[in-house]
Design goal:
The chain is 81% helix and 0% strand. With 192 residues, the chain is mostly helical. It folds into 2 domains: 62 residues; 128 residues, no CATH class. Helix 1 packs antiparallel against helix 3, helix 2 packs across helix 3 and helix 4 crosses helix 8. The longest helix is centred in the N-terminal third of the chain and has 28 residues. The radius of gyration is 18 Å and the shape is globular.
């Protein structure tokens, strides 16, 4: 569990610098340059991600069951993760109405992903992993929306065709992940 916690601390910590130390981050980018900042950011993120994966795998070898989720929770999780994948796709498809309405669909998608996994899984390792991501995503979403309000940021209205494109990309990616990659990467079939 310590490796998982260390990975979360590194990964979510580096992704939280804007929340807690945005002026410091801006000063560091100016001091070392954007390219070097992104290099260090990426390296720390990768180390944190590796530790999360390894630590989560280790924690699942000796599981501590906090609750047993009902069967309906898997179906609810599947629906929520589908929406999460569409939101994440909408963050990268330019000109979506989804981005105009939400502002930060990637973070909203991570929030739904974490909630979905919390309702479908009841191990201590699950609560630590997905609960950590949920707390981070809620804090980042609130910070980002406040920053947008303070800066007067308005996202372009977007079009329905771009939303449809985000839905198709998100849906196809979700299908591939649920049907094949989740079992291969995590060892769990989410729909069975």
């Amino acid at each position: 569990m310590i490796v998982l916690l260390l990975g979360l601390l590194l990964f979510l910590g580096v992704h939280s610098v804007r929340i807690g130390a945005d002026p410091w981050r801006t000063a560091q980018v100016a001091r070392v340059g954007e390219r070097q900042w992104k290099g260090v950011f990426s390296l720390v993120s990768l180390v944190g991600f590796f530790l999360i994966v390894w630590g989560y795998g280790q924690a699942r070898l000796d599981p501590l069951v906090l609750w047993n989720s009902p069967v309906w929770a898997r179906h609810a999780a599947a629906m929520l993760t589908f929406v999460a994948f569409v939101l994440i796709a909408a963050a990268y498809v330019p000109g979506t109405r989804i981005k105009a309405a939400i502002g930060h669909p990637m973070v909203a998608g991570v929030t739904l992903w974490a909630v979905a996994h919390l309702i479908a899984n009841g191990l201590l390792a699950d609560v630590v992993l997905f609960g950590g991501f949920l707390a981070w995503a809620i804090a980042l979403f609130a910070f980002s929306r406040r920053r947008d309000r303070d800066a007067g940021t308005v996202y372009p209205a977007g079009s329905l065709s771009r939303d449809a494109l985000a839905a198709v990309i998100g849906g196809v990616t979700w299908s591939v992940f649920v049907l094949w990659l989740h079992l291969w990467l995590i060892g769990v079939r989410p729909l069975i």
